[in-house]
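Re-run requested by the PI after the first attempt was lost when the workstation crashed. Everything re-entered from the original request form. Ligand of interest: 2-oxo-3-(phosphonooxy)propanoic acid.
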Amino acid sequence: MASVKIPALNNPFVSLSFKSRLPSSFSVTFRDNLRFSRSSSRPQRRFLVVTASSASISGKPTVLVAEKLGEAGLSLLKQFAIVDCSYNLSPEELCTKISLCDALIVRSGTKVSREVFESSGGRLKVVGRAGVGIDNVDLAAATEHGCLVVNAPTANTVAAAEHGIALLAAMARNVAQADASVKAGKWQRNKYVGVSLVGKTIAILGFGKVGSEVARRAKGLGMHVIAHDPYASADRARAIGVDLVSFEEAVATADFISLHMPLTPATDKILNDETFAKMKKGVRIVNVARGGVIDEEALVRALDAGIVAQAALDVFTEEPPKQDSKLVQHERITVTPHLGASTMEAQEGVAIEIAEAVVGALKGELAATAVNAPMVPAEVLAELKPYVELAEKLGRLAVQLVAGVSGVKSLKVSYASSRAPDDLDTRVLRAMITKGLIEPISSAYVNLVNADYTAKQRGLRITEERIIIDGSSETPLESIQVQIANVESKFASAISDSGEIKVEGKVKDGIPHLTKVGSFEVDVSLEGSIILCRQVDQPGMIGKVGHILGEENVNVSFMSVGRTAPRKQAVMAIGVDDQPSKQSLQRIGEVPAIEESKLLLQLCAGIFAFGILSSAVVGYGNGKIFDITHKITSQLPTFGSVNGLGQFIWLVASIKNGSTVNVSEFKLGTHTGTHVDAPSHFFEKYYEQGFDVTSLSLQTLNGPALVVDVPRNNNITAEVMKSLKIPRGVHRVLFKTLNTDRRLMHSKQFASDFTGFKTDGAQWLVDNTDIKLVGLDYLSVSAYDDAAPTHHIFLRNREIVLVEGLNLDGIKPGKYNVHCLPLRMEGADGCPTRCILTA
Ligand SMILES: NC(=O)C1=CN([C@@H]2O[C@H](COP(=O)(O)OP(=O)(O)OC[C@H]3O[C@@H](n4cnc5c(N)ncnc54)[C@H](O)[C@@H]3O)[C@@H](O)[C@H]2O)C=CC1
Ligand SMILES: O=C(O)C(=O)COP(=O)(O)O
């Protein structure tokens, strides 16, 4: 009755829902009145409201201090609040205590997870991070729960810089190794001959607060200091006697490299096999920034290959690192346990800075160091929402175009509007552009209060210009133009005739669009990522580029070409839903007639700008029904399916039109929505032995289930599985991962570093639990590298069913009943699935 044709995937990451050898796209014919029932769920939209007023009955709010805080900060807090200092709490203890607290203060050692916010029952109003990095705080959860997060970004700068210098000297003179050797009863004077610092070149990567303090001190040691920071002011560097150079020059000429940049998508593993290969043989490396800026495995290789002579590390990708870590145990590596900020003085300073911010926030003041403060009051947002989104995206776009070593010093923003100047408050728009420009490149968080200050602190001068145009004053703005002067660009055509990087945007049908790059008119919606190409205008260019992207199944959402004149210079802007691979970009660059190309990433607005949530929750009796299906729509990517998604469902023949039966057909891509995974993709014999979805155990797919939160920034390893403490007797578990926070669902392999099961995690699950239904909120249950072995472990005994691509947004961890209804198609061993939870 049903014919099934299945897309063959060429992307190894994506496990198939269907037998891969079958041809592309499948169609199924149903007879009778088959209707696809959709739940009556209505997406609810709500706006973020962050308030911070104290609400304790005794009159005094309670502040839980979960890690050691300097005395001065404690006394400040005690003047205003009841202070509970409880250190070394287990996650469970923290969750229990938190419901009695209005504020929480931590350093980097306490994970403030979603569970903490959920357990607070709405009482927790402020989280204070006594330091800079807020990697340990689940910001998205904080924002969703209306909890303000504040940090202390300046008080430990000098301490971190001093620790960098301490590690530099200790490494060069083998202090730690020699100390251990003497204590072991040895006296090895020849073994520990060191190297001198004077006269050597040190490259500071990241010339911000800490980097510039390290530079000053290195100068005092007689070192030649160079720095790389594409966004730092060259004047400020010159004032300290430091030359700003390109990344290539910095890594190739340095005897010592010291890292001081924040961990961002652009700096993630910025030191890797490729960059190590370009370094001077015998280079020495110091890292007091964040572990993730170094590819730690590549560092071990570079040490063993003799490229890197020594390294000194205060920070690690995983903290604490594993005891048997090759990196930590390497004899030419000096390590400290994240001590950068740990001086008496810095901790006193940080304690005061954070106590003031927390008390201020509890009094209802908006702290300048607020990390997730709302940018836009709700009433302003109603009218300005698409424009503030446009402003931030133009800022993000402009900064990604900057190259060279002169730094971003001046920014000019022009607003074209038919409204009178005092009828349009541009403060919010200016703050959003500043946010877009600064947040992707620094450890600063920009809010309405601190935007101008943060810009000034970074030496960034912002000028604004109003252009009054004729037209209806109903729309607040016609366009926004952002110009950065005196810089080079990674995409030369972004430089306008007058010499600045120039981008301009408009709001069309409520959606921000990029309308000008340099002197070229384009028209592309500012969503996903954008590829810019400069070319000689000629027929066939769109097809050539589209073909390269299509081969990789990168979905093109928009394309537009702006040109100076027919067959002259043109700029093509291509909006893509998925990030293309380096190879594809290289191929695009190699197309004859394309003169330059550049990928601009992450145009999405920061999650803290507006906390709009949608969820599919329906009340039912006294309980609730949650639809946790990612529905299959024609907008979903198809990951290698040639025909992709066609018509979703249509009536080929209907009784209404004279047929004796209703005949429906539909065509789907694979692996894009919620589905039962296809074992045959990883396990040939399943298919040979006649396994298909009709033989799936509905008992496995329906019944009591647990939704659990796994730690973010980590794959599901044996250790993680163990820490979840899932009792024996639990048969169905849905795992909530980073995907739910970051909506990584359709970003392909780029997200798989921290969303899936590792082999050991799968093995642990099989060996130590009774779980038979493994649900995950991502496209594949397994981490990319481990795809095949992990699936083999899960599927080996034909007992475990994998449901992938669940939509767990807004679902709190806890007990539910799960009901998964697979679309049972003959001959297919995986299939789209409708899943709901009841509570
Ligand atoms: N080990 C520890 O205990 C401590 C670590 N830190 C860490 O040190 C780092 C620096 O902190 P701050 O100086 O306060 O931050 P900052 O924001 O003042 O400076 C960071 C600098 O990095 C630059 N940068 C961004 N992307 C870059 C890129 N791709 N290449 C080169 N430079 C780039 C920025 O332009 C900025 O100037 C952060 O990661 C922070 O978390 C800070 C304090 C203590
Ligand atoms: O401030 C930072 O970013 C740090 O890394 C310092 O962390 P700590 O407060 O010492 O746990």
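Saved to the shared folder this time. The first strand starts at residue 26 and ends at 31.
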